[in-house]
Design a protein that fits this description.
Shape: globular
Distance between the termini: 29 Å
CATH architecture: Alpha-Beta Complex
Order of helices and strands: EEEHEHEHHEEHEEEEHHEEHHHH
Number of helices: 11
Oligomer: single chain
Strand content: 15-25%
Structural class: alpha/beta
Helix content: 25-40%
CATH class: Alpha Beta
Number of strands: 13
Number of domains: 1
Length: 289
């Protein structure tokens, strides 16, 4: 399975902070925002990842992440020259996807909770159709909304409805079979002039191949598109790391646990890194069994 991180967009709601740089490169507490969606794909065992961003920001992403070899993954990049919507990612990434299945995550989405890795692996094992993740929110009118019948089956999808049929928002993480490329090509632009991800998911719903996994209580989903949500996310990460003594979205730790890299390779990487609190945490991994 391949992975795509959609890290484009002007991030105008975060101006002036995001005026000179992609908002996906802004820090969420002690690491860049893109570490969080990248960690999600790595937790799912996905090692071949495409980053789609603006032409102006590609060099900054390459400077930060390189080719991904330090984490035992392969990163490639492609520019989105015109903002055409989330579903456009599959058209831009057609050659990258090839004959594989693909997972897409939005660059400003953060997920955290017990059992998340198992949830990802379960979604990855669905070889046919699509899997999306629903999360109960207080303001569903801001999101794509999924509603369910009494048996818990998804029955409708709406994009930012004025009168939502449920409080379950569809998060920015999606798993698809290889049909997603041809389905995306058949979409017509919305009134916003974009290829909507909700319309793409509706195609799978119409074919009865849309699976919806609910993220239950105790799980955190953060969409960091505003100054308030960025601050909330930073406070959340700080609190969890302080209380639990762990690093959320530590790419080196995930790579080591997944067997993407060896301790010897990690030690080689650390020899080039500064001795700050993040890399001190990473260095302690070398002494763990």
């Amino acid at each position: 399975m391949k992975g795509i991180i959609l890290a484009g967009g002007a991030g105008m709601r975060l101006y002036p902070a995001s005026l000179p740089i992609s908002k996906i490169l802004l820090p969420i507490y002690d690491k860049p925002m893109i570490y969080y969606p990248l960690s999600t794909l790595m937790m799912a065992g996905i090692r071949d990842i495409l980053i789609i961003t603006t032409l102006e920001d590609i060099d900054n992403f390459k400077k930060l992440l390189g080719d991904g070899s330090q984490w035992g993954i392969s990163l490639s990049y492609v520019p989105q020259l015109v903002k055409k919507g989330i579903a456009d990612a599959f058209i831009l990434g057609e050659d990258f996807i090839g004959a594989d299945r693909v997972a897409l995550i939005l660059g400003d989405n953060i997920f955290y909770g017990n059992g998340f890795e198992q949830i990802l692996q379960s979604a990855k094992q669905n070889t046919a159709g699509a899997t999306v993740f629903a999360y109960e929110v207080r303001d569903p009118e801001r999101f794509g909304v999924v509603s369910f019948d009494k048996a818990g089956n998804a029955v409708s999808l709406e994009e930012k409805p004025k009168t939502p049929k449920s409080n379950f928002a569809v998060t920015g993480l999606y798993f698809y079979d290889n049909k997603v490329v041809s389905y995306a090509k058949q979409l017509k632009p919305s009134s916003r002039g974009e290829l909507e991800i909700t319309d793409l998911n509706k195609v799978y719903l119409a074919h009865n191949t849309l699976h919806v996994a609910r993220l239950e209580r105790g799980f955190a989903w953060l969409d960091t598109g505003t100054h308030e949500s960025v601050l909330q996310a930073a406070n959340f990460v700080h609190s969890m790391q302080l209380n639990q003594g762990i690093e959320i979205a530590c790419l080196e730790e995930i790579a080591l646990q997944k067997g993407f890299i060896t301790k010897a390779e990690l030690a080689q990487t650390l020899s080039k890194c500064p001795s700050n609190t993040y890399y001190q945490y990473v260095s302690r991994l070398l002494n763990k069994k």
